[in-house]
């Protein structure tokens, strides 16, 4: 039996009892207002009990179970840090109310009775939203204070700082494979966390009926195995999960907010969703674009022209890092390696694009 059905039964009994209690007065009121023939009291009690019981059966979940479920879902989406700062802000607001309560009580009725209650609500709410809204600045302030105390008493343990940094790993990053090379170079400090539901999604892709998806999933399994075998790469498969969320991307975002850690991914949609919710994202594609060699207008480079461009007379070549170079009037040099001069460099969402012309 579900909790919602139990609440409906309890509401039916409670509201029915209330209807029975008020049935007599309700019947007298109806007789006076409608001028109808008086009926036995038991009729009014039964009628009122039935109406109230039906009403209680319908509305009880909306005033008991559903608000609790909604509150529980909202609280599960909040990080522990947000909850702590919210409680601290509420306590600060109530302490200020306590200091102001006695002076306000001396004003006499009705202000002396009303203002302390109003100030408790207003200051408590202001303290809560202020500390939640400014939690990043406050966290930075407390961190700086703790570091200064540590520097006065001795050196800071750098290994504990690295261990406290955690990075959630997305399925797309594991399948991509470049995470192993990046982690091996040491550019990902701290602990790599692979949630169990990400591993389950990777296994689901590996068991797919589609041959391409199956190969990608198995490649991801091999990359994850290589990461675990490398003793210099701290990686952990964790059972941490979130309740009430089914989609893997949504669970990653909620978990990142709760743990206050970034997500490592190259999924564009997950990147956008996480950024909209204030979660930091480490995008491998953006890293790859950032470390590509930069050519400035006027520089010359050897380029092999391998195909036609979109516009008439253009030729297209590629640099070693995969950057596309569009060569004006390069059609006649297809299949040849020539020296070209860069004329323009464009940075797009898909990457860097270079325009050049033959020397």
UniProtKB/TrEMBL annotation:
The answer to keyword Membrane applying to this record is yes
Keywords recorded for this protein, A-Z: Hydrolase, Magnesium, Membrane, Nuclease, Transmembrane, Transmembrane helix
Gene encoding it?
Answer: yacL
This protein's name: Uncharacterized PIN and TRAM-domain containing protein YacL
Q: Which domain of life is it from?
A: Bacteria
An MF annotation (GO) of this entry:
nuclease activity
SMART domains of this UniProt entry?
Answer: PINc
Write out the transmembrane intervals. 9-30, 42-63, 83-102, 114-133
Domain spans labelled TRAM? 294-355
Checking PROSITE patterns in the record gives: TRAM (PS50926)
